[in-house]
Design brief:
single chain, 50 residues, alpha+beta, 1 helix, 42% helix
């Protein structure tokens, strides 16, 4: 019985948790001077010089 209650609560809360994590849209990323955001790496990397 207790497993059923916990399972029902989890399944009810799951969409709310998913919505909360995605509702912010895009977030700006700040990198230190001399570095840029690399989307594929998911981190700040040294700026390439030419």
């Amino acid at each position: 019985m207790l497993k059923t209650v916990f399972c029902a609560l989890f399944l009810t809360a799951l969409p709310v948790i998913g919505y909360a994590s995605c509702s912010g849209g895009h977030q700006a990323m700040s990198c230190a001077e001399g570095t840029v955001w690399d989307q594929s790496a998911g981190a700040c990397v040294d700026r390439a010089t030419s």
